[in-house]
Amino acid sequence: MRIHGDLVGENKTMFGEACLKVIKARNDKFPVGALVLALSGWQTHYLSKDGKDLRPIPFDLDTLSPSVSLGVLGMPGLTSYFGLRLLEAKAGEVCVVNGAAGAVGSLLGQLAKLKGLIVIGFAGSDEKCHWLTKDLKFDYAFNYKKISVDDALKQAAPKGVDVFFDNVGGQFFHDMITKHMARFGRIVICGAISTYNDAEIPKFPQTHLQILANELTIRGLMVMSYDKEFDTALNEMAPLIKKGDLKFKETLYEGFEKMPEAFVGLFKGENIGKAIVKASNYP
Ligand SMILES: NC(=O)c1ccc[n+]([C@@H]2O[C@H](COP(=O)([O-])OP(=O)(O)OC[C@H]3O[C@@H](n4cnc5c(N)ncnc54)[C@H](OP(=O)(O)O)[C@@H]3O)[C@@H](O)[C@H]2O)c1
């Protein structure tokens, strides 16, 4: 299966989701002024031929910014919701999440805490780790640039990790499988940001025997496969956000021309929570 080839490439509009305000309308479902979601890509204006590619925001915003429909109550929030479900985690189990201060990881960890798990996050700065433990109540957060996964988990999960939500892939994934998963552990692969830019795919990871011996379950997650359940999930999550039981941050870039900077920033760890670009022509 081709993963990125159909979405990105030379002479293609860069892929992406946006929250758009309708400025001209010939469709009663979407009057002028309405906010809609669309996979419109990196464009300042978007023309929908028949409205079938537009989705209304499926929950009441109240005092929330429309940007939440792209973050905590959008695709990243949904990814964490269905990701936790796939992990089949039980209260008291040990959960590791990397990319933990990002849009998906920060929510996955909080949902796991609400379920009674012991949550260990890995992120790329002390500031991010402080946010995870102090505000989001993760049990542990480690700056992976300062401490190895092995040393961190010797401290925080000496008996092994029951569930692992992987946003990073590569060496981190390899270390988890070969050294840290508990027997009957479950892994959800959500992303592999440490390898997205690799020119060569590493060959033959030495993981088979550990998967076999520890009887691990490894699942891939594609959030779009759950689209029929999106509205149910969002209506469950929205009250948690409004009550403050689920906290979130957004890193805001002002101006459409900041799209490349915001995108590259994801690979440098410049965002905390969801990276949002607000177009200056957004009415
Ligand atoms: N499967 C799905 O349906 C689905 C849906 C949404 C997103 N995703 C994937 O899930 C992952 C998280 O998405 P997100 O929206 O939450 O992104 P994000 O975490 O908001 O941003 C990416 C973060 O990854 C970390 N990172 C970047 N390079 C890294 C590296 N080499 N090693 C370790 N960490 C690195 C950075 O934080 P640090 O400072 O911690 O390094 C960065 O802030 C991504 O891989 C994304 O592609 C998958």
TrEMBL record:
It is an enzyme of class 1 (oxidoreductase). The keyword Oxidoreductase applies. Its EC number is 1.3.1.48. SUPFAM superfamilies: GroES-like, NAD(P)-binding Rossmann-fold domains. Residues 5-277 form the Enoyl reductase (ER) domain. One of its GO terms (biological process) is prostaglandin metabolic process. GO terms for molecular function: 15-oxoprostaglandin 13-reductase [NAD(P)+] activity. It holds the Pfam family ADH_zinc_N. This is 15-oxoprostaglandin 13-reductase. It comes from Rotaria sordida.
